[in-house]
Amino acid sequence: MATLNQMVAEQTKVISEARASLEAAFKKPPTQTAVIAAREATVAELKTRAANLAEAKVTFTRQIDQQLAGYQTEIAALEKLIEEDKKRFGDQPTPTPPRPIRGKGRGK
Question: Region entry Disordered: which residue ranges (predicted)?
Answer without folding.
Answer: 84-108
